[in-house]
Amino acid sequence: MSAPSVAIIESDVPPPWQLMLSDLITDPQELLSLLSLNPQEKPLGLSAAAQFPLKVPRWFVSRIAPGDWQDPILRQLWPAQEEEIAAPNYVVDPLEETRFNPVPGLLHKYTSRVLLTAAPHCAVHCRYCFRRHFDYAGNAPSRTDWQAAFAHIAADARIEEVLLSGGDPLALSNRQFGWLLEQIESIAHVSTVRIHTRMTIVLPQRIDAEFAAMLGASRLKVVLVSHCNHANELSDESSAAFKTLASNGVTLFNQSVILAGVNARSDTLIALSKVLFDQGVLPYYLHLPDAVAGTAHFDVPIPDAQALVAEMQAQLPGYLVPRLVREEPGNDSKTRYA
Ligand SMILES: *Cc1c(COP(=O)(O)O)cnc(C)c1O
Ligand code: SF4
User: Fold this and answer.
1) Residue among 227, 259, 295 whose CB has most ligand 2 atoms within 8 A, to mutate
2) Is residue 244 part of a domain?
3) CATH number of the CATH domain containing 116
């Protein structure tokens, strides 16, 4: 990691993860040199990279095998020319999220849960991301906008759970996160906060003692859903992060997206469930990819995905088999396919 370029004032030392979070690789050429890969072999998708740039924490690059274009982590990160192939039915907002967006930063689709897009950015850009076209700028609420979101939650006693999602809510500082948590805690009918994050995977150092203690001290039940798609993404560092969270009473789940060329094999998915369990995390959802423009090359046909889950079921205890789901606009929950 490179040294910080600004002098740090003693009383305001950022935690080490904040320096790591600012040490992002965004230059495709730099990524390829670190991985000893030849750009001629798989040229950058220029317009894909312009629309949704390469972004990955330097630390996480250590999880990628050098010299291998087929590496399952690299495939999730590299802006490929396949993204530029127009595919019919692949649209910018397949989930019609703008329909369920009554207040900036808030999505209310399912009766008892609301989702807050808590941060305007992520530590990593995942090529398959269904929010790759999301209007984060228009959904980066100020504190005043936040008041409208909390007023919406406070006015609807059916809401029991608040999801903090992305962008990545753990891209916020502990102080900003703590402020959000306090606002949620102050609404009496909310019992649970759920954090959806990829930070436990791409920068597990983010889970520092101060953050974990803040969750442990909350009156709310705290659920954390990690987003991990392949066992190679799990590390000693993620294991330590999950231990810290669990010892502060946080319930740990994982959700994955089934992705062609990354994890669409039964042995790969079985290995993922086993390593997650080794790290204290249970599989929750396996998402069928959404039809987002630029992601058609990751698509797995539904019957193929169902067959993979059947193979998982034949070899794993039921608690290590994720639910195969897809989000379909207008339904009152995600739709189960297995
Ligand atoms: C997925 C999702 C939820 C949570 O659904 P669960 O079935 O409880 O996991 C809530 N709100 C939105 C907008 C979602 O996309
Ligand atoms: S971390 Fe999540 S929200 Fe952010 S780019 Fe990846 S999939 Fe999308």
Assistant:
1) 227
2) yes
3) 3.20.20.70
289 in any annotated domain: yes
Best of 108, 109, 223 to mutate for ligand 1, by most ligand atoms within 8 A of CB? 109
The ligand placed nearest to the CA atom of residue 165 is: 2
Question: The domain containing residue 331 runs over which residues?
Answer: 93-336
Check whether 4 has a pLDDT greater than 70.
no
Global pTM? 0.93
Q: Is 196 in the pocket of ligand 2 (CB under 6 A)?
A: no
Of 242 and 96, the one with more pLDDT: 242
Is residue 146, in this structure, part of any structural domain at all?
Answer: yes
Return all residues near 189 (Cβ < 8 A) that are at least 6 apart.
157, 159, 160
How many structural domains are present in the chain? 1
What are residue 37's phi and psi, to 5 degrees? -115, 150
Ligand 2 atom nearest 167 alpha carbon: 3
Residue 5: how many other CB atoms lie within 10 Å = 6
Question: Which residue is associated with the tokens 């909310």?
Answer: 190
12 is a domain residue: no
